[in-house]
Amino acid sequence: MTDYKALYAQKLVTPEIIAGMVQDGWVFGMDTGTSQTPAIMSAVAERAKNSELKGLKVHTLLDIYPYEFYADEALKGKMTGYSWFSSAGARKAINAGYADFIPGYYRDLPRHIRAEYEYDAFCVEVSPMDSHGYFSLALNGSYCEAMMDKAKRIFIEVNEKQPRCLCGTQIHISQVDAIVEYNHELPVLPPVVLDETSITIGNIIAEQIPDGACIQLGIGAIPDATGMALKAKHDLGIHTEMFTDSMVELIECGAVNNSKKQIHRNKSVTTFAYGSKRIYDFINDNPAVEMLPVDYVNDPAVIARNNNVISINAALEVDLIGQVCAESVGTKHMSGSGGQIDYVRGACQSKGGKSFIAFASTAKGGTISKIKPTLTPGAVCTTSKNDVDYIVTEYGIAHLRGRSAGERARQLIAIAHPDFRDELTFEAKKRGLLV
Ligand code: COA
């Protein structure tokens, strides 16, 4: 029988040894934030800064460590980040012009990775090895299996703080080229402060959600507030892209038990988790959480196999015919499409399902209406007018699916902030939307 501990000892190196293997033009792949490898990336960045090394690329999603390749001008041209869904560091670097983003639906990334890319190294942080030689990829189903398929080398960072996900991706020591040990606390999202507007919106949506519904909550304060407003519900289920704090709250208070789902009954299904330590502790060794690849979890046809799917996502602006921008403020890059459209479509195809796009009616201290006559020039249309279902602000709900352009404009103006309704009505009439 193979002595896995001996194999582990043979493959154990330092981050600097890995950095020393890197050659010009290497492409690195990493999965979502909590599975990324800060020690290896920092050693590679250090070597790139202090050598002739150039043309390195890093493909990431939801990058949550303060990577030097997003912040240090000295790495310009030497090491470049490419993000599929940006958090703060990537956003800043992309808008400053020294990082780039790759458009795409999150659901399609495994397919894109297998069809379009070769990786010189896939880097991933994992939980400690089990007695059979396996490491758990913990908080990621996502696209890591596709990256493993397309990587010439696999470097892992073993962190004893990584939870073990029982129903998730595993990697065997025989697949690994080199191991680094780096024990550190996982990054956490700052606790969301729920303001009055988010709570109002959360309560409005909660009224639309029946007992027994299967929920998806997106990124941002409003999906979180909606989650917290569901504590009095019964028999809810979870089939979601991101596993969030409010979902742990709903499971622990008994509102979610997954008993009414048509698929994966009695289990919560997700493709990655990010939030507080409470989530990571909850997932650890928990057979009731399934962390599955994103091409399965976010497939609208899979989502729609559950009845009464309710998806709740945020947005930055919407125009009067219902085109939703959730990725940019004008030309300023903010994030990515993620799985918003997959859940809008999946929920709408599900028997009894509904999709909600929700946001405060104004931004920037009440000076900007998020309901606009037209999308701001440069704004990305994330959810099209043909897919959109319900739009919600603190002033109510607009039901757009199946409604005419004029009816959409009327309903959206009615849930805009009162200070902007006259101007929106004027613009809608000018466009011939209101007759
Ligand atoms: N015009 C100008 N600025 C705007 C704006 C508008 N219409 N709408 C928002 N902003 C500003 C806010 O003031 C805020 O600025 P600040 O960072 O200086 O405070 C910033 O943009 C972020 O807005 P906020 O409403 O707080 O965002 P959020 O944290 O709730 O996230 C999304 C909203 C849309 C960015 C987020 O949900 C996302 O990334 N979505 C992507 C697609 C998706 O839904 N994926 C599916 C789920 S995982």
In short:
By secondary structure, this protein is α/β, with parallel strands linked by helices. The protein is globular and about 75 Å long. 52% of the residues are buried.
Write the layout of secondary structure elements.
Blueprint: H1 4-11, H2 15-21, E1 27-32, H3 38-49, E2 56-61, H4 68-71, E3 79-83, H5 88-96, E4 100-101, H6 109-116, E5 121-126, E6 134-136, H7 144-149, E7 154-158, E8 170-172, E9 178-181, H8 196-206, E10 214-217, H9 221-228, E11 237-238, E12 242-243, H10 245-252, E13 268-270, E14 272-273, H11 277-283, E15 289-291, H12 294-297, H13 300-303, E16 309-314, E17 317-319, E18 324-325, E19 328-329, E20 332-333, H14 340-349, E21 354-358, E22 362-363, E23 368-369, E24 371-372, E25 390-393, E26 396-399, H15 405-415, H16 418-430
Helix pairs in contact: 2-3, 8-9, 9-10, 15-16
This protein binds coenzyme A.
DSSP helical segment count: 16
Name the assembly state: single chain
Q: Which term fits the overall shape?
A: globular
Strand line-up in the sheet with most strands: 4-3-2-1-5-7-9
Unreliable spans? none
Describe this structure as you would to a colleague.
By secondary structure, the chain is α/β, with parallel strands linked by helices. Strand 22 (362-363) and strand 23 (368-369) form a beta hairpin. The radius of gyration is 22 Å and the shape is globular. The termini are far apart. The protein has 16 helices and 26 strands. The mean pLDDT is 96. A seven-stranded parallel β-sheet has the order 4-3-2-1-5-7-9. Helix 8 (196-206) packs across helix 9 (221-228). Coenzyme A binds next to strand 16.
